[in-house]
Design goal:
By secondary structure, the chain is mainly beta. The protein is about 10% helix and about 25% strand. It is globular, with a radius of gyration of 28 Å. The structure holds magnesium ion. The site of magnesium ion has 8 residues, from β7 and β8.
């Protein structure tokens, strides 16, 4: 009996030690990185049985006049309505913008007069801007109707006449220049007006100036989604890697590509988010 009892205890210990090993392996597995499960705490309480329990009235949502039929939203800041270039300055020396003001309510790049920027600065924005590539077409690739919309004054959404005009995809129309090609090419025929509707969220930096949250951008080109909450990985230089200098609010900047691009803009407004 004693022998059996001893063997019994031994078996029990062996099983225990095996279990310990299994336990250890199991613990190691749980330490592997996993996607965090999303739990919406507010919906974990006992479920209501009355409809009123899941309805609320405050805070009120702001009423904004709609932007249909060529109108702008009631709370938009108009950056260019065709009446003057007063809200814009030369990017380098802050002198008056020298681009051409046209009688049809648009403005056109005056070649080699430099990029222009808004006097006003912004962080997160919804931006509406219309642009047109010139006729007759001239040259090829990046030298055909090249301009650009620079968010925060430094992140370029490419403007280019890409109709029957091949170029690198991460520099084509609607790209985050040299970072992210668009999801689609949605240009109207050359000489007609394109529309960009852009939602931009600025990056965040810590006290040491290091980036802790990337900027993101969503772009609709003529109503077609071409950038879908895309991460902006830094500045958009012609040569070299994107850089991430710390910054706060910045202007909206439009590019003079310096090669007689003749690109025009009209109806520019933003809503601060
Ligand atoms: Mg450009």
């Amino acid at each position: 009996m004693k022998k059996i009892h001893f063997l019994g205890i031994l078996s029990f210990l062996i099983i225990l030690s095996c279990k310990e090993e299994v336990k250890e392996v199991a613990i190691e597995k749980t330490e592997e990185p996993k996607d965090a499960v999303i739990v919406h705490e507010e919906y974990t309480k006992p479920e209501p049985t009355e409809p009123e329990a899941t309805e609320y009235y405050e805070p009120k949502v702001p009423v904004v006049g709609p932007a249909t039929g060529g109108k702008i939203p009631a709370d938009a800041i108009v950056l260019f309505d065709g009446s003057s270039l007063n809200g814009w300055i030369h990017t380098q020396d802050s002198t008056a913008a020298k681009w051409r003001l046209n009688k049809d309510g648009s403005m056109t790049v005056a070649d080699k007069t430099g990029n222009i920027r808004t006097k006003q600065e912004f962080g997160d924005i919804q931006l509406h801007i219309e642009w047109r590539s010139p006729l007759p077409v001239q040259r090829e690739g990046q030298n055909r109707g090249n301009s650009g919309v620079f968010l925060n004054g430094m992140y370029e959404i490419q403007v280019l006449d890409n109709n029957d005009n091949n170029t690198y995809v991460n520099g084509q129309v609607g790209s985050i220049y040299k970072q992210g090609p668009p999801l689609a090419m949605a240009s109207v025929p050359t000489g007609e007006w394109n529309v960009y509707d852009i939602i931009y969220h600025a990056p965040k930096f810590n006290d040491d100036g290091a980036k802790i949250k990337s900027a993101t951008v969503t772009v609709l080109h003529n109503g077609v989604l071409i950038q879908d909450h895309t991460e902006i990985k830094g500045t958009t230089p012609y040569i070299g890697w994107p850089k991430n200098p710390a910054h706060g609010k910045g202007p909206l900047m439009l590019q003079d590509h310096g090669d007689d691009s003749r690109v025009s803009y009209r109806n520019i407004w933003v809503r601060e988010l």
